[in-house]
DJ-1/PfpI domain-containing protein (Nonomuraea maheshkhaliensis), 581 residues
Amino acid sequence: MTAPDPTKPRPVLRFIWHYVEMVIAMFAGMLLLDPLWGLVLPPDTGTDVDVLVMAADMVIGMTVWMRVRRHHWAAVAEMGVAMFAPFLILLVPYWFGVLAGHVVMSAGHVLMFVFMALAMLRRRAEYTRHSHRLTINPKWAKRAAVVLVALLVPGAVAAVNTIGKFADLYERREGTVSVKPVPRTHDPAKPTVALLTSSEGTNVADLLGPYEVLAGTGRVNTYIVAAGPGTAPLTGGLDLVPDLTFEQLADVLTDHNDSLDAIMIPALQQPPAAEHTAINDWLRRQSAAGTLTVSVCRGAQAFAESGLLDGRTATSHWLRLAGLRAAFPQVKWVAGTRYVDDGNVISTAGVLSGVDGALRILERLVDGDTARAAADRVHWRHYSPFTAGSIPESAVEPLDAVVGINSSYLTGPSTIGVQVVEGVGELELASAFISYTEHAMVGRTLAIGEAAVRSRHGLTFVPRASTAAGVGRLLVPGLDAFRRKVAGTGGEVRPEYLHTTEEFAFDPVVRDIARTYDVRTALWTAKTLEYPVMDVELRGSAWPWVATAVPLVLALLGAAAAIGSFALVRRLRTRTTTQPA
């Protein structure tokens, strides 16, 4: 009787290892293929399509690896059926409204792992008696290594640059400030609207756009509120001092025997747990008291987390809807509209749709004439009185890769100074801090000023630098600043005035991006702002050609380094073998 070879793995261990290999392969397929589907499928495909696409990605990854390991086609086909079957079975009750989308996702994965194990047990000899050894041609291995290094170099540069730019968007200032907000006179005869901020960061356009629309009327008590004291960082490093905390707002309302009429929730960076709880509790209390609650763009996420959107119809930014549908299936998410008015809750689409949300508040709490005058005041030409205007149902397209190229490889000055000037319009300020950073991704902004600044309608901002030393560009937002020819603060960079005529604040910014960088970046910026620019003339280079060439050069350098390394190793080996003993 032959004793078992202790150096060979036991059948059970080989079986388990095969299972682990296929799990890794199917997740690799999902991670690698999912971005490609985004180029051809619309962003809001629905839970059933998302489930089937995900299952297909995993089956493809598993199939490729099983064939590499030389498994028989019959075993590969059975494994594919085992992986697909649970999702197909669970989708039937989902289509009849019996199961929620998140149940299909979670239960489908659990059953898939079980079915995979059963398929392997059915053909256990396939996974226990054959090692399916992998043979690799050394020549092809070297070629693969060269390709890998060639891709790794531009990939590493892209990762470092992109992570750095995104991490910098809502970076909090060092230390604290003692600046106090401008005291407000509360008029109980006017409706009161509170706009929410987070200590971890708030979208500057979601917040300041609606604020200027509301405060500019003089018909509304408008406050920026926070859960606690301290500055609120806005997109691009613009620091705002909120008007009131939740408790201070309650005191003001109590003193005037008044109540809160509306809340606006912009896109908030995830706050600490205690603040997150405080925000949710405050939103629920206000909603229970009958307060109209309005979300702007990705602010719909904070809204949905509070539970106040359950069973309601809502919208959000087109890039966020797919994720929101998966995370909050109890909400009826829709696209293609500026806002959704569902009783005491209103939700708006992306970024500049917050202007429409503010105008809708004016229609409901004041009157239509005030809303029309407010739209004219800020030159918002997309106002649809008493109805939600339609907007394109955008999707990611191949040319939208421009933002990835900008965030990864854009050359030239990366720091853009923004002179924060006394009396600047809130929309004018927002246009400078969000467009070049979060949307165009052409650089980081730096708020410059010698002291705290008050905006046109009384908000308080604290700059982070006193001079423009070290910046690549110095932008001065605000038509009033242009008319007064406000000079830049220090440095040798010539100030560039963004706003030189009476028009909507984002128009000259989009034109500047096209002229200074390229038209495709300007179009992407407008698309993600959800701002139609068909009537805005854009002139400039069609594409960021220099930035596009950078990854190609990096790939060539990486390939050359890999080839040179192999040649050096080969020469050293040859020299060693030819030396006399």
Summary: The radius of gyration is 29 Å. The CA atoms of residues 110 and 375 lie 52 Å apart.
